[in-house]
Each structure stands twice: as C-alpha cells, then as structure tokens.
Design brief:
By secondary structure, the protein is mostly helical. About 55% of the residues lie in helices and about 5% in strands. Helix 2 packs across helix 3.
Length: about 90
C-alpha cells in the first residue's frame, strides 16, 4: 500500500497550515478563552505583516511557531493528534 502512495501522479494528503483552539490548548496548556485570545493575536500579527488572516478559530501555524518558539514538526504532531476534534 505504501508503494501506491509513492507512485507518480498520486496526490498526497494536504498539509494543514493552521492551528485551532484545541491545538493551541494542547501546545500551551491553557484554557479555551486563552486559546482563542492567542488565535486572535496571531491573526492580528498576520494582518500587520500584510498577510490574509484565517477565519474565526484558526491561525497560521508558522506565525504561531515563530511567536512561541515551538518547532513546526511538534505543532504538526499535535495537529495530527487533534484531527477530528471539534473547535
């Protein structure tokens, strides 16, 4: 099965480029209100950089990683772990 996934022309799964409140809660060890506040702050930083912010409840994982000094691969692991969890 793994060989098929690596075959030419096969599209891989999309990479998630944002964090959600459950991800932020897990990474920072905070409550819901602080997670959403953090997401709003990250989206404000995005606007100041001239980037389009994500919709409500989502923020750029790259700016989040930069802001809190957390490696992106750690954030990716948490995102994968929290997939399917309601925001």
């Amino acid at each position: 099965m793994r060989t098929l996934a690596m075959a030419p022309g096969v599209i891989s799964a999309a990479v998630t480029t944002y964090v959600t409140a459950p991800d932020v809660k897990c990474l920072l060890g905070c409550m819901d209100n602080k997670a959403y506040e953090t997401i709003r702050e990250i989206n404000e930083i995005s606007k100041k950089k001239g980037l389009l912010p994500y919709g409500a409840g989502k923020a750029s994982k790259y700016i989040f990683a930069e802001r809190f000094g957390i490696p992106v691969d750690v954030i990716d692991a948490v995102i994968e772990q929290n997939k399917g969890e309601k925001v």
